[in-house]
Amino acid sequence: MTGRRILSVWWPFLPIERWQRLSGASPDTTVALVEEAQHGQRIVAVTTAAAAGGAHPGMRLTDARTLFPALAAVPADTAGDAALVERLARWAGRWSPLVEVDGGDGLRLDVTGTAHLFGGEEALRQEVEARFAAQGLTTRVAIAATAGAAWALARYSRSPRGRSEDDLAPLPVAALRLSPQANHTLHRLGLKTIGALAGVPRRSLARRFREADNPLDALDRALGRTPEPLTALAVEPPPRATLRLAEPVADPAVLGQALAKLADPLARMLAARRLGARRILLTAWRIDGEVGEAGAETSLPTREAAHLVRLLAEKVGSIDPGFGIDAFALTATWCEPLDAAQDALIGEAPRERELARLVDRLTVRLGPGRVQRPEARASHLPERASRWVSGIFSPSRKQEGDERARPARLLDHPEAIGVIYATPEGMPRRFVWRHVVHDIARVEGPERIAPEWWRQPGGTRLRDYYRVEDSKGCRYWIYRDGIAGDGRGGAPDWYVHGLFG
Q1: Is 264 exposed, middle or buried (0-12, 13-18, 19+ CB in 10 A)?
Q2: Between 20 and 30 A from 86 (CA), which of 201, 219, 413, 420?
């Protein structure tokens, strides 16, 4: 079978089945999930026993209790239902790399060219139904050439098995996903099925409907006459190596074995695309619908399989195999360009790469907040010109022409010094710092640094920095806070801000 193939998943009772699973309520419970509406509370979902009593979704709670006084009402958890659908969509990535949430009760998967990996379309459909049924969800699945046809067959066909877009004719017009007003108009015209609608001249119907709600346009989309793309972006998926097990395995040792087996294929994929991984993620799909993950980051792009295995080896133990894992994937979720490079002639790896490996392993073991490196910032003030960042990120590069003579050690806070003797120009010749007298032998400067007025309005004065050397050969970075003639008056203050090597 050629052409595009879309798989549609529908959970008709997802809200109430999720509530029953979380609450542990028995199937005989007469409960309705309700939400606030314009004219009072409206029913969102009901249990089987409540449906037998006459309650159904869309009914007002007061009307339902008129028919069934014993009906109990529970607030619907719409946000929780949406979160469950999002999680199931992520879990459905085992069947297709392109998965889209379809409303609040279904999914759409582009399975073009992938069904043969699961034994064909019918085998894939059965597997999807069985997997979700094992999680306690009533599921209907259909596969067709268009998203509209798959949606219609999953929701309105009595048996979606083996159906295609050619079987749309007997379905009701509501299967075209029209608005309630458009469905009502078509019923008044006697057009109750898609087959009846297809035989009507287009011009006679076009003037009765708004352009955005034209049933003929919806029919064209369902039949593939006009395109209906998925809303998910068709981007190139990240490099990913997968492994499927013949039987679920609950032994934690399989985690390390799967990681070792997936690292080499992932490295080859990265090399083929001339990429290096900065973040890798090992995903394990459990048979109960849960997904276990373990990830790590690197300070430099890499595609060395052994290094990737070492980074994740200590983290895979956090994945709980539960009742068994039957599928794995190792994904490079963050990649950067990495061309081929030659190591040193004597066969040793460059020191930068060795340092990056050390930083990676320390970060995995101690945590990203405990391994840090300095990073330059765009500021003239020395105390703001650098900051500490996580060591896992590559150090920033200085711009050309930004090299200034700066001390190897910068004090956390400038420390005041007492000037004993100064030249007529105001430069100290002898000062006291930390109870020690220093005689200045050489001076270089000044370098004037102005305050950042947009950060500290009116609070900081001009600084003149000097590099000085005392009679013992020790070198200091001192500055004068307050310049003569700046309008503030008084003698300037002197501080030590850094020490040269």
Answers
A1: middle
A2: 219
Whether the Cβ atoms of residue 417 and residue 432 lie closer than 8 Å to each other: yes
Convert the pLDDT of each residue in 417-473 to its tens digit.
988 888 777 788 899 999 999 999 999 988 888 877 666 555 557 888 999 999 999
- Together in a domain, 175 and 151: no
Nearest to 148 by CA among 229, 92, 202: 229
Whole-number Å distance between alpha carbons of 292 and 296: 14
Q: How many Å apart are CA 379 and CA 385, to the nearest integer?
A: 5
Could you tell me the residue range of the domain that residue 42 belongs to? 6-156
* pLDDT tens, position by position, 57-84: 989 999 899 888 888 999 999 999 999 9
Place of tokens 């085998």: 123
Q: Looking at residue 75, which CATH number applies to its domain?
A: 3.40.1170.60
The one-letter code for the residue type at 34 is: V
Res. 8: pLDDT tops 70: yes
How many CA atoms lie within 13 Å of 271's alpha carbon, on the beta-carbon side?
A: 11
Q: How confident is the model at residue 190 (pLDDT cuts 50, 70, 90)?
A: confident
Q: Is residue 380 part of a domain?
A: no
Are 23 and 151 part of one and the same domain? yes
